[in-house]
Amino acid sequence: MTRKTSHLNVASLEVFLRLSVLPLCVASAVMVVQANDSSDEYGSVRFSNISGFKFLFSMDCIAASYAFASATLLLCRTQKRNPWVLFVLDQLVTYLMVTSSSAAAELLYLAYEGDREVSWSEVCSYFGRFCSRAKVSLFLHFVALFCFVCVSLLSAMRVLSAFGPPSAAGNQEREEAEK
C-alpha cells in the first residue's frame, strides 16, 4: 500500500467518523428533549430543569454542527493548508463532550441511586420515563464521544505526521551541549 493510498484511507475514515457523530448527537438531543415525566405525588421533571442535561443538549447541538462543518471542510479540501485549526477545535469539542457526558452521568446516577449520606432518595421509581430517556440520550452521547476521541486521534496524527523523527545529528548536538 502506498503512502498516498494510506493517507486517503485515513482521511476517508476521519470524514466517516465526523459524519457518524451527526445522527448520534441529533438522536441524543431529541431523546434528552423528550425526557419529561410527571407524578401525582412529586410533580413534574423536564430536562430544562436540570443544568447538566441542558449542558448535554447544548453540547449535542454544538458537536453535531461542528462535525458537519468540519466534514464539509475536509471533503472540500479547504483545510489542507492549516491542519492545526481542526486539530485544536477537535480537541476542544472532545473535551467539552467529556465534561457534558460526565455531568449528565453523575446526575443520572443520583437519579437512580440517590445519596443516602445527604438524604437524597432515588427518583427514577417515580420518574421512570424521564430516567429511561435520559439514559438512552447519555448512551448515544457516549458513542458520539467515542467517535470524537477517534477523530481527535486521527487529527493529531495528521498534524504530527508533518514533523519527521528527530535526526541523529540533533541528538549528538544535544549530548555535546549537556557535557
From TrEMBL:
Keywords: Cell membrane, Membrane, Transmembrane, Transmembrane helix. GO terms for cellular component: plasma membrane. The keyword Transport does not apply. The chain crosses the membrane at residues 15-35, 55-76, 138-157. It is found in: Cell membrane. Residues 10-147 form the Casparian strip membrane protein domain. It holds the Pfam family CASP_dom. Its main location: membrane. It is a multi-pass membrane protein. The keyword Transmembrane applies. Homodimer and heterodimers. NCBIfam families: A_tha_TIGR01569. Belongs to the Casparian strip membrane proteins (CASP) family. This is CASP-like protein. It comes from Vanilla planifolia (Vanilla).
